[in-house]
């Protein structure tokens, strides 16, 4: 739409799109509103829109994605959760245990997370385990503990949904829906999350290409939920020293295609506590919008992912280091644009302070 287009002009275009049986996605930006169209099986004649009031141009999108792209929205998406942001000026920290195990453990970790200045507490209530005999999470009982933590520490709750009905409970008690690596292409789950009002943290599948991952995000957005956070958590390669190979090149590679925020999970990305801090530093240095870190008060007793859990003191040290790196690099891109395939970075030095 033209910068001068009124809200009424935008509504009129949305109505025409819906009236011909397609889906309209309005994306307000700093200078103009873009309207994405989905639901068409093939090309549609865009000329019918050109004469509507306020329309600047009709752009045919020939890429496989329509909504995640910078073509639709040149400014970065900032996901807002109860006053905290992901993708904005601040480095978002999502930390907590792999799984909620009991009240004492969850509270001890939440205290460390709060003290670090992080705004998001993660913890699995349902766990997707390779073995059916391994700890599967506390299930609904875990929510009682989660609710107390949310209340006591004022942290936003991030939890993984394994199936569509889990989303109902996260909507009731939590703040961010996590979709795990194993479910990145669980399309009914993606669609359900896409119909939620809560932001969705979408982890990369362990063998997913960038395109597959971005198309999974597209599934969520196509349902109308534009608050998607991408999380690089490593892919499987022939390397045997880490559990997965953390693909840090994904961060700038996504940045040149998509407006969505990208965070890095060096815990699942490496599988070993000694690798977490070095890779967290690197993740921030390549421009991640945030980190997801697993923390446990007694890693040696953890019921899942103990080998990669940091102790609270190690976690506190990590946070101090990555904040310093963030300040030193200050390449957190409020003003990145891709023109003709080359990236122009406006360094808005230390603006987040
Ligand atoms: C997790 O975050 O605890 C988890 C299971 O991660 P992933 O889906 O990346 O394996
Ligand atoms: Mn885990």
Task: Name a few traits of the molecule.
353 residues, alpha/beta, TIM Barrel, 2 domains, 8-stranded parallel β-barrel, two-stranded antiparallel ribbon, 11 helices, 33% helix
Helices and strands, with pairings:
Layout: H1 7-19, E1 23-28, E2 33-38, H2 47-50, E3 79-81, E4 84-86, E5 92-96, H3 103-115, E6 120-122, H4 140-153, E7 156-160, H5 164-173, E8 176-179, H6 187-194, E9 200-203, H7 210-222, E10 228-232, H8 250-255, E11 262-264, H9 266-270, H10 273-285, E12 290-294, H11 312-329, E13 335-339, E14 342-346
Parallel strand pairs: 5-6, 5-12, 6-7, 7-8, 8-9, 9-10, 10-11, 11-12
Antiparallel strand pairs: 1-2, 3-4, 13-14
Helix pairs in contact: 3-4, 3-11, 6-7, 10-11
The structure holds phosphoenolpyruvate and manganese (II) ion (MN).
Manganese (II) ion binds near residues 98, 268, 294, 304 and 305.
Structure in words:
This protein has 353 residues and is α/β, with parallel strands linked by helices. It has 2 domains: 7-50, no CATH class; 79-331, TIM Barrel (Alpha-Beta Barrel). It is 33% helix and 18% strand. It is built from 11 helices and 14 strands. Strands 5-6-7-8-9-10-11-12 form an 8-stranded parallel beta barrel, surrounded by 6 helices. Helix 3 (103-115) packs parallel to helix 11. The site of manganese (II) ion (MN) has 5 residues, from loops.
């Amino acid at each position: 739409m033209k910068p001068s287009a009124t809200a009424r002009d935008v509504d009129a275009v949305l109505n025409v799109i819906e009236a011909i049986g397609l889906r309209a996605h309005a994306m307000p930006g700093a200078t103009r509103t873009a309207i994405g169209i989905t639901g068409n099986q093939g090309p549609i004649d865009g000329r019918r829109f050109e004469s509507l009031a306020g329309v600047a141009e009709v752009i045919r999108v020939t890429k496989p994605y329509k909504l995640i792209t910078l073509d639709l929205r040149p400014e970065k998406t900032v996901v807002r959760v109860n006053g905290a942001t992901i993708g904005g000026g601040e480095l978002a920290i999502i930390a907590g245990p792999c799984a909620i195990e009991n009240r004492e453990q969850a509270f001890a970790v939440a205290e460390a997370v709060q003290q670090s200045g992080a705004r998001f507490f993660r913890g699995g209530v349902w766990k997707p385990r390779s073995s059916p005999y391994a700890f599967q999470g506390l299930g609904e009982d875990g929510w009682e503990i989660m609710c107390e933590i949310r209340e006591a520490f004022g942290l936003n709750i991030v939890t993984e949904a394994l199936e569509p009905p889990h989303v109902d409970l996260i909507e009731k008690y939590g703040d961010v829906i996590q979709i795990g690596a194993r479910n990145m292409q669980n399309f009914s789950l993606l669609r359900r999350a896409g119909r939620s009002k809560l932001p969705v943290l979408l982890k990369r599948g362990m063998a997913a290409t960038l395109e597959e991952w971005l198309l999974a995000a597209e599934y969520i957005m196509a349902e109308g939920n534009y608050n998607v956070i991408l999380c690089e958590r490593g892919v499987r390669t022939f390397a045997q020293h880490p559990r997965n190979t953390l693909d840090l090149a994904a961060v700038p590679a996504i940045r040149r295609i998509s407006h969505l925020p990208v965070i890095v999970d060096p815990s699942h990305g490496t599988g070993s506590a000694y690798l977490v801090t070095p890779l967290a530093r690197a993740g921030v240095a390549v421009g991640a919008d945030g980190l997801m870190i697993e923390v446990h008060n007694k890693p040696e007793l953890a019921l899942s992912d103990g080998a990669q859990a940091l102790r609270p003191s190690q976690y506190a040290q990590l946070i101090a280091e990555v904040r310093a790196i963030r300040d030193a690099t200050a390449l957190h891109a409020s003003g990145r644009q891709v023109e003709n395939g080359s990236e122009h970075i406006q360094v808005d030095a230390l603006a987040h302070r």
